[in-house]
Amino acid sequence: MIKPVAREPQRRNSRSNRARILATARRELGRNPDITLEELARASGVVRRTLFGHFPGRAALLEALAEEASETLRGVLEVARRPAEPADRALAHFVYCIWPVGDRYRLLLALARRDLGVERVAEILAPARDEVTAILERGQRDGVFHAQLPPAVLSAGLEAMHFALLEQVNTGALEDDGTRTAVVTLIAAGVPADRACAVAEETAPPAPTTEPDGGE
Fold it and tell me: What Rg value do the Cα atoms of the chain yield, rounded?
């Protein structure tokens, strides 16, 4: 009896192509929202037929990016929530958690107006927005943050600032590992500058360690 040819390598290759297309789309759409699917296929190193096999049109590709961002955001929120921490530390920790994946959300906002729709993007970002609003509300109640603006309005202002800073990183005008953004976020929320710098330093994630090469 002839055994069927194993299809697992093909499936792995298909998953690899899909992941590469999505990664390329995040990068290239951030540079040029008008890029065509044919141009994306070339940038991804796949033929047009392969891209269309995964994403039959622009809407399908953008929805896949939206769902990927939504899933990533849910994972970030699992570690970003610090309800027992003082509000300033909780806000700084949230910024550090969200900063590495912020480019995905900057892309979503850029595409919201004409492609994904404002409502779809708002649905994706709602958990993060709710979390920041809750932190700000707690901080205002405890006297840690200013109360010049309602928490939801202040949250919207901070979000706009974050995306503006991400845009500056994208253009090369700013270098930041999240520390600068954490500091200015706290200051914008009403924390004195010295305290904001101290909190950002205290809550910064540990620097990645590199293990020395060793021989057997």
Answer: 21
**Predicted TM-score (pTM) above 0.90:** no
CA distance 95 to 78: 14
The pLDDT score that the predictor gives to residue 90 is: 97
For 96-130, how does the pLDDT look when each residue is reduced to its tens digit (9 = 90+)?
999 988 877 777 777 776 777 778 888 888 989 99
Non-local CB neighbours of 162 within 8 Å, separated by 6+ positions? 95, 98, 102, 181, 185
Q: Is 74:164 a contact under the CB 8 Å cutoff?
A: no
Looking up tokens 């297309």 gives: 21
pLDDT of residue 215: 47
Phi-psi region of 178 (alpha: psi -120 to 50; beta: other; left: phi over 0): left
pLDDT at 92: 97
Is the Cβ–Cβ distance between 155 and 129 less than 8 Å?
A: yes
| Rounded Cα–Cα distance for residues 140 and 83 (Å) | 14
Q: CA 116 to CA 69: how far, in whole Å? A: 13
Round to whole Å and give the CA distance between 207 and 152. 32
Confidence (pLDDT) at 120? 82
What is the rounded distance in angstroms from the CA atom of residue 119 to the CA atom of residue 38? 28
Closest of 5, 19, 6 to residue 50, by C-alpha: 19
